[in-house]
Design brief:
This protein is an alpha+beta fold. It has a single domain, classed as Cytochrome p450. It is built from 16 helices and 9 strands. The strands form 3 sheets. A 4-stranded mixed beta sheet has the order 1-2-7-4. Strands 3-9-8 form a 3-stranded antiparallel beta sheet. Strand 1 and strand 2 form a beta hairpin. Helix 8 crosses helix 9 and helix 10 crosses helix 12. The longest helix is centred in the middle third of the chain and has 32 residues.
Length: 408
C-alpha cells in the first residue's frame, strides 16, 4: 500500500503501461486504500470492492441512461453531447444503456428468441470450431486464426448471414468495435462510421427480406414476434442486433484467448481438464473470474445512497470495477491463484441484475466447446514465446490479446 495519488479513470485503462502489464498492481492498492472514491476527472465514483460492486449492479432502481446524469458527471455528459434530442432514445441506444420500461420491453423478446437459439446451437458451434481447427499447423497466431473468427461465425449463423456475405460481415464486425473505444483516432472513427453504415444497411435489407420470406434464424424469429404484436420497431431491432454482434464478438474472442493463454501458462490446471473434460463449465467460470474480458460497467444513482462511507447524490455516476471485484480477497481465497476447480463463488464478469450481459449463455457455450476441442485436437499445444510478455490490446476497459503465438 502506498501514499500515491488515487488513480483517475484514465489510469485504469491500458493507456497506463503499469495497468496494461498487470491491472492488479493498481487495483489491489486501490481496493485496499479507498474502495470507493470520487474521480473528478471522469465525474464518477470508482467502486472496487466486491460487496459494493455486486450491490450496485444488482440494484434494479439504478439508471443506465446518461440522460439522467448530473452536469458534473463528465464522461456521461460527453456521451449526451453526441445525441440528437429530437430522435427517440430507443433509436439511438441499445438495451446496454436503456432504462425501464423501454429496456424490459426490448430485452425480453430479444432474450427469449436468442436463448432459444443458443439452447440448440451446440452442433453449429462444434462445426465452426472444427473448421477453425483444420487450418492450424505449426506456429500460428491463435487470436487471428481461431479466437477471432469463431464468435463472428457463430453469431453470423444465428443471425442467418448468407455464406457469400460472411467476409463483408466479418469486416463490418471488426469496424464497429471501434464504437467501444472512447479514445479512438479520427481514422478509427471513420472506419467505425463506414462499418456502421454498411451494417445498418445490411440489417435493414435482411429484416425486410425475412419479413417476406422467413428462414430458420434469429432475425426471422424477431420479425415473427413483431408480426405477433411485440412492441419493437425496426430501428430498435437494428441497433440491438448490432450491439449483440459487437459486444459478443469482442468479449468472447477475449474470453477464449485469455483462457488458452492461462491454461498454457498453468500446465497443472490444463492437466485437470485433460483428465476430466467434464470440468469445463467450472473452468470457464474461473477464467471469467480471473481474467475477464471486460473491466468496468456503470450505473447512475436514482436516489441518494451511500457506499463505503461515501454519500452519493441522485444523478451521480458510479463506475464499478468488475476486474477488481473478481479478485477481492474478502470473497475469494487466494484470489490471484488460477484454480480451475475452485469452489464456485459467483463472479461479476457479466455484470448483474436486469442488465446482466444478454450474450452470456452464448459466450459460455462457445468458450466451453472451443477449449475442449482445441486441447483434444492439439494435446501438445504450447506457447511459441513463453518468456515474452503478452501483447495486450490498448482498447480501454477491455482486456484481450493482440496476438497469441502458439505451436500447434
Amino acid at each position: 500500500m502506498t501514499s500515491a495519488p488515487l488513480p483517475s479513470m484514465i489510469d485504469l485503462t491500458p493507456l497506463n503501461e503499469t495497468y496494461r502489464a498487470d491491472p492488479h498492481v493498481v487495483l489491489d492498492d486501490l481496493r485496499a486504500r479507498c474502495p470507493v472514491h470520487r474521480d473528478e476527472v471522469s465525474g464518477s465514483f470508482i467502486v472496487s470492492r466486491y460487496a459494493d460492486v455486486r450491490a450496485i449492479v444488482s440494484d434494479r432502481g439504478m439508471w443506465r441512461d446518461a440522460i439522467h446524469a448530473a452536469e458534473t458527471e463528465v464522461m456521461q455528459r460527453q456521451r449526451m453531447q453526441q445525441v440528437d434530442p429530437s430522435v427517440p432514445r430507443t433509436s439511438l441506444s441499445s438495451i446496454l444503456t436503456l432504462d425501464d420500461p423501454d429496456h424490459a420491453r426490448i430485452r425480453q423478446p430479444l432474450a427469449q428468441a436468442l436463448y432459444a437459439r443458443v439452447a440448440r446451437c451446440r452442433p453449429q458451434v462444434e462445426a465452426i470450431v472444427a473448421r477453425a481447427l483444420e487450418g492450424l499447423q505449426g506456429q500460428v497466431d491463435l487470436m487471428d486464426r481461431f479466437c477471432v473468427p469463431i464468435p463472428i461465425d457463430v453469431i453470423a449463423v444465428i443471425l442467418g448471414v448468407d455464406h457469400d456475405r460472411l467476409v463483408e460481415f466479418r469486416a463490418w464486425s471488426e469496424g464497429v468495435i471501434q464504437g467501444l473505444n472512447p479514445f479512438r483516432t479520427q481514422e478509427q472513427t471513420q472506419e467505425m462510421e463506414r462499418a456502421s453504415l454498411a451494417l445498418n444497411g445490411y440489417f435493414t435489407e435482411t429484416i425486410a427480406a425475412r419479413r417476406k420470406a422467413p428462414r430458420d434464424d434469429l432475425i426471422s424469429d424477431m420479425t415473427r414476434l413483431q408480426a405477433e404484436g411485440v412492441d419493437l420497431n425496426d430501428d430498435e431491432l437494428r441497433i440491438n442486433l448490432s450491439a449483440l454482434l459487437v459486444g459478443g464478438n469482442l468479449t468472447t474472442t477475449d474470453l477464449i484467448g485469455n483462457a488458452v493463454r492461462l491454461l498454457l501458462l498453468h500446465p497443472e490446471e490444463l492437466a485437470k481438464l485433460r483428465a476430466d473434460p467434464g470440468i469445463i463449465n467450472g473452468l470457464v467460470e474461473e477464467v471469467l473470474r480471473y481474467e475477464p474480458p471486460v473491466d468496468i460497467t456503470g450505473r447512475i444513482a436514482s436516489q441518494p445512497l451511500e457506499f463505503g462511507g461515501c454519500p452519493v447524490k441522485a444523478g451521480q455516476s458510479l463506475t464499478v470495477l468488475l476486474r477488481a471485484a473478481n479478485r477481492d480477497p474478502e470473497v475469494y481465497e487466494d484470489p490471484h491463484r488460477f484454480n480451475v476447480t475452485r469452489k464456485h463463488r459467483p463472479h461479476v464478469a457479466f455484470g448483474g441484475g436486469a442488465h446482466i450481459c444478454i450474450g452470456a449463455p452464448l459466450a459460455r457455450l462457445e468458450a466451453q466447446v472451443a477449449l475442449v476441442m482445441l486441447f483434444d485436437r492439439f494435446p501438445g499445444l504450447k506457447l511459441a514465446h513463453p518468456d515474452t510478455p503478452p501483447e495486450w490490446r490498448r482498447l480501454p476497459f477491455f482486456r484481450g490479446l493482440e496476438r497469441l503465438d502458439v505451436i500447434a
